[in-house]
Structures are given as structure tokens and as C-alpha cells.
Amino acid sequence: MSQSQKIKFYTKLVNFCFDDVELFVNQLYKVADAIKLYKMQVSRSKKSSSSSSSSKLKQNQNSTSRGVLHLRATPPTQEEFITIFKKVKFALNIMADLEGKALNPSPTEMFQHLQGPFIFMVQATGGTSIVSSVMHPVLKRNTVDMMDRVTES
User: Fold this and answer.
1) What is the pLDDT, as a whole number, of residue 51?
2) b/e sequence 28-37, b meaning 16+ C-beta within 10 Å
């Protein structure tokens, strides 16, 4: 495989990882929205409870929609978070290997683009314990150096 073919291949791998991260973050936003809606519906139903027959029908409909919202409000599992964090580390290692090659956007620009979603995912887990538990893949030295350079500038 030629050097340019390797660069294209690795770039595709990074893009696949980015696509997965973007889908995951969108899922997290949808979960957050569903949680807000669910809480609003629960508080509304507590305020407007009466015992008429039309009200009971309305309560059944609200109960059904709350059930659907409750399902939509279920966050990803810890295993799903671990999988996406592994993909982020994998992509970071590849991006560091691609650094210095003629790419648009550059690996450092890609890393900057990844920072926001990564921080959001870490916050969604409630802290750094899950991301810290991801041992593989190991970040390579050039990956850590790239991250240091980007975060310092």
C-alpha cells in the first residue's frame, strides 16, 4: 500500500470514528431533551388531576406518552460509553500518526473539533471515572504530545 493510500485509509477510519461520536452525542442530546419533556409532563399531570371520565381518558393518553418519553429518556449504558471512548482514543492515535501529512483539515484541527463532544460525553457520565477506566487502546506518546500542543495553544 502506498503512502497516499495509507493516508486515505487512516483518514476514512478517523471519519468513521467521528461519525460514531457524532451519532452518540446526538443520542445524548435526544435523551436530555426527553428527560426534560418527561419531567414537564409529570409535573403537569400532578397539577391537573381530576376525576371526570374525560380526564381519565386524558390521563391514560398522558400515561402512554410518558411511557414513550421514559423509554426515550433512557441514557446509553456504561458499555456504550466505554465503546465510544475506545473509538475516540483509537481516532486520536490515528490522528497523531497523520499529523504532518498534507490533510485538510489537519489532525490538530480535527482534535479541536472533537474536544467539545468529548467533554459533553464525559459530563454525561457524571465525571471521569468511566473514561479513565478505558485502558485500551493505549494513547501513544505522539498522541499525548499532539494533545498537549493543541490544548496549550
Assistant:
1) 47
2) beebeebbee
